[in-house]
Design a protein that fits this description.
Rossmann fold; 28% strand; 6-stranded mixed sheet; 14 strands; Alpha-Beta Plaits; binds adenosine-5'-triphosphate; ATP binding; nucleotide-binding; 4-stranded antiparallel sheet; ABC-2 type transport system ATP-binding protein; single chain; AAA+_ATPase; alpha/beta; ATP-binding; 312 residues; 10 helices
Length: 312
């Protein structure tokens, strides 16, 4: 199936010469939730803005639903909803009217039943006649989503949807995204919170210094790059790691009670069996053991750090 969004060799050099995007290519399939991760200043907002027509690319192409974002801007833009980072700024506006206004911007009639349905979905219906200034912070965020959905777009961009919100609100936003995904909306979100990508995304892209350095199915990414750590709780504290265990990559905790062994889950042999025999031969007994999978966060930090090291 043709991707719903296709970005080809997109470049953006801002006035003054700063190159914020370097030959970015990316395909997004209909119905997927894609998380774009990257450190501060990596180019996430620039990429979203270029796709949504808010920033003019220096070169490259973007098509949305087959429409070129430059030569067929209206048709392409009609398919896109954008939830910006900033909070709504019209304090006296009435909630329902604000959503109707957003719909009107796309030349659609103010269909009350559609607007009410969107307000209900975002639990804002009770507030439809309130002024925006009377909304809580969480409600204001939901209003931004409602406004972005007002013209029934097929793709929703969320630019750091939960930056600076509390945990409850963050989970609230995740539930909203989950429900939207269930209705077939394609979702692209940028985030600093790895946990957010881990929770919601089907695929993850990492951008660093204007370049996409990785795009991968989330589960696959965690499987491929993930390492596991085996922690042994020792029966008696160990003064030092004996020389007979030197071939294993072991670390002894400062309090001498725990031994950890890092291994690659993808390796043909994890080395655990031989480690166990070597421990027994060295007379080291343990009371307990546990394994931990490295998180998406560990993987991300590694990737960006390696990128720095290789000059990316
Ligand atoms: N209008 C502009 N003129 C010049 N440089 C800009 C402009 N907008 C952004 N930049 C620069 O482009 C780079 C990418 O910025 P962008 O906002 O896309 O990053 P980001 O990944 O969204 O960052 P953050 O996570 O901090 O929001 C930054 O170095 C930024 O300073």
């Amino acid at each position: 199936m043709a991707p719903i969004l296709s970005v080809r060799q997109l470049e953006k050099t801002y006035e003054g010469g700063f190159q914020a995007l370097k030959s970015v290519s990316l395909d997004i399939q209909k119905g997927e939730v894609f998380a774009l991760l990257g450190p501060n200043g990596a180019g996430k907002t620039t990429l979203i803005s270029a796709i949504c027509g808010l920033v003019k690319p220096t070169s490259g192409t973007v098509t949305v639903g087959g429409f070129d974002i430059q030569s067929d801007f209206r048709k392409a833009r009609q398919l896109i909803g954008l939830v910006p980072q900033e909070m709504p700024t019209a304090p006296f506006e009435i909630v329902g009217d604000s959503v109707a206004f957003s719909r009107g911007l796309f030349g659609l009639r103010p269909d009350r039943s559609k607007i009410d349905a969107i307000l209900k979905d975002l639990t804002l219906y009770e507030k439809r006649t309130s002024q925006i200034m009377a909304l809580s912070g969480g409600m204001k965020r939901r209003l931004l989503v409602a406004k972005a959905l007002a013209h029934e777009p097929q793709i929703l961009f969320l630019d750091e949807p939960t930056a600076g919100v509390d945990v409850e609100l963050r989970h609230d936003m995740w539930r909203i995204v989950g429900r939207l995904r269930d209705t077939g909306v394609t979702i692209i979100l940028t985030t600093h919170y790895i946990e957010e990508a881990e929770e919601m995304a089907d695929r993850v892209g990492v951008i660093n210094k204007g370049e996409i350095i990785l795009v991968e199915n989330k589960t696959e990414l965690m499987r491929k790059l993930g390492r596991k750590v085996l922690t042994l709780t020792l029966a008696e504290p160990l003064a030092e790691i004996p020389g007979s265990l030197a071939e294993f990559d072991l670390t002894l905790s400062e309090d001498k009670h725990f031994l950890t062994y890092a291994y690659d889950t993808q390796a043909e042999r994890t080395g655990i069996t031989s480690l166990m025999s070597a421990l027994a031969a060295a007379g080291i007994r343990f009371q307990d053991l546990q394994t931990d999978q490295s998180s998406l966060e560990d993987i991300f930090v590694d990737l960006v750090r390696n990128g720095e090291a290789s000059g990316l």
